[in-house]
Amino acid sequence: MVKILKAPVVEIFQSVQGEGETLGVPSVFVRFYGCNLRCSYCDTPYAVDKEKNKAKEMTPDEVIDEIFKYDLTNIVFTGGEPMLYKRFINNTIKKLPVIYTVEIETNGTISPFPLTLLCDIKFNVSPKLSNSGVKRSQRIKHLSLKTFPYNNTVFKFVVSTIEDVNEVLKLKNKHNFKIYLMPEGIDRKTIIKNSKFVIEQCLKHNLNYSPREHIMIWNKKRGI
Q: What domain range is 78 assigned to?
């Protein structure tokens, strides 16, 4: 008997991309349950360890059926850590019509292969810094980071201090991808507080700035 491939999905919803290079693009978000890190500032804890019993085990076909309910053609696989389910994502993408574009949001600790064999997947990689509270040996995997395709990858970092920015600059010297700095915070008030500092650092170091519009607009509301 052939085993049916399934993955735990917390939610599938439509919104606009809230950060990074595709900021503002209307998208369908597929959020997986589970992550291999435990960051102190995680803004989706319900997808990490709080609501495992609410995650629905779905097949690629079931996920695609949900995607088809929306009249949007940009798909964002997120989490949690979606690369835990890269084989599932690979199978799902292969079933999508060619009009769809795909983004994958990841912490960069897991190699994207075999997804790199598929054309035009955009990888939004957010390596975690010391401010995450996670040990460096767990959060920074240089061999994995080197496997992301240069032309289809952007690095996004959540920062709030000079120390955070210095960590980013060291990683930039080792992995020369396009970089976006984002203000740390899980609520609107904290994002506003940290934004001016982040913009100043972007100007100083010639880095891209990204707001976090999903938090600025909807604050802590989920499913948007």
A: 7-218
CA 57, CA 100: separation in Å to the nearest integer? Answer: 23
Residues whose CB falls within 8 Å of the CB of residue 112, separated by 6 or more in sequence, listed in order: 83, 86, 104, 106, 121, 123, 147, 148, 149
- What CATH number should be reported for the domain holding residue 177? 3.20.20.70
CA distance 162 to 152: 28
Torsion sign (Cα): 26, 24, 126, 170: positive
The answer to which of 44-48, 59-63, 156-160, 207-211 has the lowest mean pLDDT is 44-48
- 57 with 33: CB under 8 angstroms? no
pLDDT at 135 over 50: yes
